[in-house]
Amino acid sequence: MSGPEVPDGFERHFRRSNLTDPWEPIYSRKIDDKLQIGLVLTEQHCNSRGFVHGGLIATLADNAMGLSSVFALANAGREVKGGLVTISLGVDYLGSAKLGEWMEIDPEPVKVGGSICFVRALVRANDTPVAMANATFKIL
Questions:
Q1: Taking the alpha carbons of 9, 14, 20, 24 in that order, is the dihedral positive or negative?
Q2: Which residues have C-beta within 8 Å of that of residue 41, sequence separation ≥ 6?
Q3: Smallest Cα–Cα separation from 118: which of 77, 69, 48, 64?
Q4: What pLDDT digit, counting tens, does each position of 89-119 carry?
Q5: Largest CB tally within 10 Å, which of 32, 57, 114, 116?
Q6: Which of 71, 59, 69, 67 lies closest to 133 in space, CA to CA?
Q7: Could you report the per-residue pLDDT of 11-38, keeping only the tens digit for each?
Q8: Helix intervals (H) in 1-140
């Protein structure tokens, strides 16, 4: 089975974890203050109905939004020594992502404050919106 091509500018995601390792390969692309994350959807990403599991969408959106906050802070001349932690995460599911599609999380830092960051993201599968996410992060 041949799936969609990985879009230009995406490379293997530099941030690995035990949680996301089973979902590899995951890709990312840095553009200004944001880090987009994407992947070709395979069986390991899907539920029993063949749709991408909402937990995968939420996890990758959280990852993309948190890292985008770090980049936005760096672009503002602020170093994040202790990292960030998620205070809140909300995801509204708009549709279904399916096996074989390219799914991409496109975050946008909304406000980077003194101790809190606010970020939103649009999740698309084959350019069709499937979720909207928003998160608040505490700067440690």
A1: positive
A2: 3, 52, 97, 98, 99, 100, 101, 102, 103, 125
A3: 69
A4: 999 999 999 889 999 999 999 999 889 999 9
A5: 57
A6: 59
A7: 999 988 888 888 899 999 999 889 999 9
A8: 54-75
The residue assigned the tokens 């390991």 is 44
Return the domain boundaries, the chain: 11-139
Enter the tokens of residue 70: 């770090």
CATH for 11-139?
3.10.129.10
d(CA 2, CA 122) in angstroms, rounded, equals 26
How far apart, in whole angstroms, are the C-alpha atoms of residue 68 and residue 87?
15
- Tokens 């091509």, residue? 5
pTM above 0.85, yes or no: yes
